[in-house]
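Progress report, Aim 2. The chain analyzed during this reporting quarter is listed below.
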Amino acid sequence: MLKLSGEALAGDQGFGIDGKMLSTIAKEVADLHKLGVEVAVVVGGGNIHRGVAGATSGMDRSTSDYMGMMATVINCLALQDNLERQGVYTRVLSAIEMKEVAEPYIRRRAVRHLEKKRVVIFAAGTGNPYFTTDTTAALRANEIGADLIMKATKVDGIYNKDPMKYDDAVKFERLSYLDVLSKGIKVMDSTAISLCMDNGMDIIVFNMFESGNIQRVVEGKQIGTIVTIDS
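Predicted C-alpha cells for the chain:
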C-alpha cells in the first residue's frame, strides 16, 4: 500500500497538480508494478482542499471533509490517467459512489483487481468525515491484506524534529507504534497508527522524491524509518 499526499502531486507550485511531478510518481509506481508486485495507492487531497483547514476558517467540518474527499477523486483520476498512458491497467475505487468516474469500493472487488495485476487506487477516503487519508491507507491496507504501508514524504524518514528547519535533527531508523503515539510524532494521525498497531501492519516512511526509492523499499533495502511492533 502506497500512501501519497496530495501535496506531493503539487510539486514546487504548492497547489493543484504538477504534470511533471505526476508523471514522475506514476513512473515509480509503474516500475514497481512491472516487477510483478501488487500495488494499491491512497492519495490525499491537500493540494486542492484540506478538510481541517476549511474547518478552521469557519466552514462546517463535515462539509469541508466531504470537499476534501472530492479533491482526492480528482487526484486519483489524474494518477490513473498517467499510469494508463504508461501501459499500466488501473482501477479507481471510490468510497463515495460516483459510478460515472469510478467503481464503488467493495473489498472483494479490490482484491480481485489486485489478483488480476491491476493497480488499485482508493478514492474519497473512508467515505466519512473526521477521518484522514492516513486512516484510509491503514484501513484499506488491512482490508486487502497488504504486506506493508509505504508512507511517501519529502524527507528520508522520521526525525526528532523538522530536518527542514533544524540542522541537528536526528533520524530514527526504527520506532514502535507506542513511540510514535507517546512522543506525538506527526507522521500519521493517531487513528491510523492505532489501527496499524492493533493489526501488526508495519509502516515505512521514506523520501518519495529520490528516484527508485519505492522499489528499494519493496526490495527490503534499509531506507527511511520503519514503524513496527517494537523499536
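The CA atoms of residues 93 and 103 lie 5 Å apart. The longest strand covers residues 90-94. These observations will guide the mutagenesis work planned for the next reporting period.
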